[in-house]
Design brief:
Layout (H helix, E strand, L loop, with lengths): L7 E5 L3 H11 L5 E5 L2 H11 L3 E5 L7 H10 L8 E5 L4 H10 L3 E4 L4 H31 L5 E5 L5 E4 L1 H7 L8 H7 L1 E2 L3 H5 L7 E6 L8 E11 L5 E10 L1 H38 L3 H33 L5 E2 L2 H17 L4 E6 L4 E2 H16 L7 E6 L3 E6 L33 H11 L3 E7 L3 E7 L8
Parallel strand pairs: 1-2, 1-3, 3-4, 4-5, 13-15
Antiparallel strand pairs: 6-7, 6-11, 8-9, 9-10, 10-11, 12-14, 15-16, 16-18, 17-18
Helix pairs in contact: 2-3, 9-10, 11-12, 12-13
Length: 470
């Protein structure tokens, strides 16, 4: 709740002088005043603005204050707004009619300033608690069947409400302390003293139970929110409990698996690479060296396949933006260029303009696929590439054969290769640009393609401002 927000009072009277008098009395007290001169207008404004209090004149033309009040109480959005009737009527029948219509109080004209302010203060307090009660009822109805556990506590951590899931997960009881049983039975990532001091309490912490012979492991990710009253004092603690046991275990298993996979792939690759280096020292025949070069080329391709497989598994485990590769210029661009030079038996000229030191893994994969595509569709005169990489975008320009206009919207389709009828057999399955598109879309970025046949292609990847850029 924003405690700096002024409380809104809607003043309704067809007499302008009365509205001016209310403004003189109430504006110095810091209230946010809104004014209306008719019943119809007051109803529209009440629906739109939901004021904290309405001061409503009884004697108005067309629609009286009684009529307005009945309409307010009949609408779900406005039925709980406190209404004070401003009236010069003194007959008991008029007051009874006002009570029947649902008014909260009467103030007689002419106004007494002290009485007016005192009653307004009292009713604004009751307005807060009345709305809190109504919201609490709605809140409890919604959260009762939620999959996540929900616990509501007083500022001293006494439990006041527990939904079914929280009851199942922690066996909590209303009226008891939340902290005592939790710290007795579980391991909590945040200290007891920190949680007891609400000004230091973290927004998120873990509640864990280690696996034993009798019980399975349990890990609850707990989100904490502190609600405050109009005076800024904590009034309630709301806790959301999410069972992340399976997710945490899966991440741990995947992490171990990645380490094992990397070891299983890289160890034999390193051994074979070393053996090939030794064999090269013993071979002098050009024909034999040619076969040796071919074997080394294929070995590098196997290493690249294993590296990308591990990348994909890491992305699934940690998320696209949680994996950052440092020293981007040296590690990703340089090594990928060497690999592509060997793969396509050419030497590409690469001009680099890079203004970042770390990039998310998905951006590295996008660049590698774009570079591979440029090598694949290079022209016969040699390959020239220009890479621009900033925090906001990535651009790769080549001097390749270009893309026909009618094909540009199709190049990101699976298994689609533009130049399959232009020359020879194009290596690969045609999935590289499909992967690029998927990665960019997942990160809410955009792709721009500008190409001229016979001159080359420019592909620009615009990064989303919320893609976790380093």
């Amino acid at each position: 709740m924003d405690n700096s927000k002024k409380q809104v009072i809607l003043c309704v009277d067809d007499e302008k002088k009365n509205l001016e008098l209310l403004e003189v009395f109430l504006e110095p007290k810091g209230y946010d005043l809104r004014f209306s001169g008719s019943g119809e207008d007051a109803l529209k404004r009440a629906q739109a603005e939901l004021p904290d209090l309405i001061l409503l004149d009884v004697m108005m033309p067309v629609m009286s204050g009684f009529d307005v009040l009945e309409r307010l109480r009949a609408e779900e959005r406005t039925k709980l707004i406190p209404v004070v009737l401003l009236t010069a009527l003194n007959a008991d029948s008029d007051r009874i009619r006002g009570i029947d219509a649902g008014c909260d109080d009467f103030i007689s004209k002419p106004f007494n300033k002290a009485e007016l302010i005192a009653r307004i203060r009292s009713l604004l307090k009751s307005s807060y608690y009345r709305r809190s009660l109504n919201e609490k009822e709605k809140f409890e109805a919604v959260i009762h069947e939620m999959k996540d556990g929900v616990v509501v506590c007083r500022p001293d951590w006494t439990v006041t409400s527990v939904n079914r899931s929280a009851q199942r997960l922690l066996d909590l009881k209303e009226g008891a302390s939340f902290l005592d049983p939790v710290f007795d039975r579980y391991s909590v990532s945040s200290g007891l003293e920190i949680l007891e001091d609400l000004s230091k309490a973290p927004e998120k912490f873990d509640i864990k139970r280690e696996a034993t012979e009798e019980f399975k492991e349990l890990c609850l990710e707990t989100h904490l929110d502190i609600l405050c009253d109009p005076g800024g004092k904590p009034s309630s603690i709301v806790l959301i409990l999410r069972d992340v046991t399976k997710l945490r275990n899966e991440n741990f298993i995947v992490h171990d698996f990645l380490g094992l996979l990397s070891h299983k792939f890289n160890t034999p690759i390193s051994v074979v690479s070393g053996v090939l280096d030794l064999i090269r020292l013993e071979i002098s025949k050009p024909e034999s060296l040619k076969f040796l070069d071919a074997a080394e080329k294929k070995l590098k391709e196997i290493h690249e396949i294993s590296r990308r497989l591990i990348y994909v598994l890491e992305m699934q485990s940690k998320g696209l933006n949680d994996i950052l590769l440092e020293d981007f210029l040296q590690s990703a661009v340089h090594s990928n260029k060497e690999l592509l030079d060997a793969k396509y038996e050419t030497t590409g000229l690469l001009v680099r303009d890079i203004s970042v030191q770390k990039v998310a893994l998905w951006k590295v994969i996008v660049l590698e696929e774009l570079m591979d595509n440029a090598y694949k569709f290079r022209n016969k005169d040699g390959l020239s590439l220009k890479l621009i990489l900033t925090e906001d975008f990535m651009t790769l320009c080549d001097n390749g054969v270009g893309i026909p206009p009618e094909e540009r919207e199709k190049i990101f389709e699976p298994f689609y290769q533009v130049y399959k009828n232009f020359h020879g057999n194009i290596p690969g399955l045609g999935l590289g640009l499909t992967l690029v598109k998927k990665l960019v879309e997942l990160n809410k970025g955009g792709i721009e393609v500008d190409s001229t046949m016979g001159e080359g292609t420019k592909i620009k990847i615009n990064f989303s401002p919320h893609d976790g850029k380093p």
